[in-house]
UniProtKB/TrEMBL annotation:
Keyword terms, alphabetized: Lyase, Pyridoxal phosphate
Modified residues (N6-(pyridoxal phosphate)lysine): K130
Tryptophan synthase beta chain-like PALP domain ranges (all copies): 103-352
Keyword Lyase: yes
UniProt-recorded Gene Ontology molecular function terms: threonine synthase activity
Keyword Lyase: yes
Domain Threonine synthase N-terminal: 2-85
Protein name, entry field: Threonine synthase
Gene3D superfamilies, A to Z: 3.40.50.1100, Threonine synthase, N-terminal domain
Cofactor(s) needed for function: pyridoxal 5'-phosphate
EC primary class: lyase
Protein species of origin: Duganella phyllosphaerae
EC number, UniProt record: 4.2.3.1
Length: 492
């Protein structure tokens, strides 16, 4: 399997302009600034789908990953997936869920020919769906680094979910250190406790005196110093990482196989979306031949994606137009994985993709509506890929959390509430609608308390997390001091 950049000139993949899975595993962007995608999507046959109905989650993950990671020996890949997708890692299932299913599916509503289902993706160590991919990434990184006898220092900034998922995936891993910046005293007590209570010597929590953007700017400033970056083997694990996207493809197959009994049936998915990483995996599953009817992107008040799927206009927001909402992991001003879909939409033309995303930098967006003066008319092709969208507000979230608690007897988190609100607007007879549950309610308890007047239940082991001893340093937003801290701790 060869990988190409979304900004590469439209020539056939050759060994000089394309790369293998292991080449792009530890990296981020392609050197031309594009994102990696397979030169072509592996196809899945009906016979394979039939055979996959019987597999465990770990075995299914192996079958799908082997189509993309063709340069990793199969026995090694099988061992990595077996070690990642276990009931012990994904142990935070609700009492009535079967944790051995890893991503258990629950029927919320059935009748009138429509079916609404919820797929639990948040039973991993940090109670959010990012564990699904990050846990695999931790094991893949450790494997690849051991082979290359190399080390990696992961450096990033977080406002909550990504940083904790990365730390829980990389803790105790050979050859890896994590330096994670967060805004001092700006995370919820639960989120801070989750990260800071890790005592592993390879995890470095750094609370920056400032807001998230200050922490993010520090990461950019340090990463722009290429000599420092190379010398200290600095890498990232952000949402554009290809291995993260491909790990997420697996649960779309799993959801489909659990919701259907034969391959003649179709299902739709609604995905609470921010950076377009999760739903991009759904698009890839569909391109591989999985019978997905609709892929519905649900946004909160930060509706960049909803606007595009309604109008064909992609208009990124300024920081001043980016709202802090009660579904904070979807508070994005631009969707970093969206380029992967646009590349497809413009017929895999790297030159056009480069020009469109250059225009995002210079003019804040582009317009594919086909109207006079627009940048193209490919919006008319969007339906071919099954995409739909919708938007949800703070009031909608509170209402949905209450409705779901009353009607189905379970408490959902704010991001999942955005998903259910939008999914209900897209229900169709004869096509089951699966909503992806992207976090558990305990992570966003403040809003649950507002909606229901009582605390969200915490999974076992999280009861007193705020009382555990915490390990972190507080630093000013000073780039030189940051570099000195990293240098002192990498010893490189
Ligand atoms: C990251 C995240 C999202 C958004 O996922 P994308 O892949 O960025 O679209 C939604 N919900 C939760 C809880 C998240 O942590």
């Amino acid at each position: 399997m060869q990988y190409v950049s979304t900004r590469a000139a439209p020539s056939p993949a050759t060994s000089s302009n394309s790369q293998q899975f292991s080449d792009i595993l530890l990296g981020g962007l392609a050197t031309d600034g594009g994102l990696f995608l397979p030169a072509e999507y592996p196809q899945v046959t009906g016979a394979e789908l039939d055979a996959w109905r019987k597999l465990s989650y770990a075995e299914l993950a192996f079958e799908i990953l082997r189509k993309f990671a063709t340069d990793i020996p199969e026995a090694d890949l099988r061992a990595i997936t077996a070690k990642t997708y276990t009931p012990e890692v994904y142990r935070n299932a609700r009492p009535d869920e079967d944790s051995s299913r890893i991503t258990p599916l629950r029927v919320l509503e059935e009748g009138n020919g429509t079916r609404l289902l919820l797929q639990a993706l948040s039973n991993g160590p940090t109670l959010a769906f990012k564990d699904m991919a990050m846990q695999l990434l931790g094991n893949l990184f450790e494997y690849a680094l051991a082979k290359q006898k190399a080390e990696l220092n992961i450096f990033g900034a977080t406002s909550g979910d990504t940083g904790s998922a990365a730390e829980y995936a990389m803790r105790g891993k050979q050859g890896i250190r994590v330096f994670m910046l967060s805004p001092h005293e700006k995370m919820s007590a639960f989120q801070a406790a989750q990260m800071f209570s890790l005592q592993d010597p390879n995890i470095y929590n750094i609370a920056i005196e400032g807001v998230f953007d200050d922490a993010q700017d520090m990461v950019k400033a340090v990463s722009n110093d290429l000599a420092f970056k190379t010398r200290h083997k600095i890498g990232t694990v952000n949402s554009i990482n290809w291995a993260r996207v491909v790990a997420q493809v697996v649960y779309y197959f799993r959801g489909y196989l659990e919701a259907t009994t034969s391959n003649d049936q179709k299902v739709s998915f609604t995905v609470p979306s921010g950076n377009f990483g999760n739903i991009c995996a759904g698009h890839i599953a569909r391109m591989m031949g999985l019978p997905i009817d609709k892929l519905v992107a649900a946004t909160n008040e930060n509706d960049v994606l909803d606007e595009f799927f309604r109008t064909g206009v992609y208009r990124v927001r300024k920081s001043s137009e980016t709202y802090h909402t009660s579904s904070p992991s979807m508070d994005i001003s631009k969707a970093s994985n969206f380029e992967r879909f646009v590349y497809e939409l413009v017929g895999r033309d790297g030159d056009r993709t480069r020009a469109l995303f250059h225009k995002v930098e210079t003019h804040g967006g582009f317009d594919l509506s086909g109207k006079p003066g627009s940048d193209g008319d490919e919006f008319k092709l969007v339906a071919r890929y099954g995409f739909k969208s919708g938007k949800s507000t703070h009031e909608d979230r509170l209402d949905t959390i209450r409705d779901v608690a009353d009607d189905y007897g379970i408490v959902i988190d704010t991001h999942t509430a955005d998903g259910i609100k939008v999914a209900r607007e897209h229900l169709e007879r004869g096509v089951p609608m699966i909503v992806l549950e992207t976090a558990l309610a305990a992570k966003f308890n403040e809003t649950i308390l507002d909606a229901l007047g009582e605390d969200a239940e915490r999974p076992d082991g999280f009861e007193n997390i705020e009382d555990l001893p915490q390990k972190f340093v507080v630093m000013k937003a000073d780039v030189e001091a940051m570099k000195a801290y990293i240098a002192a701790n990498t010893g490189l």
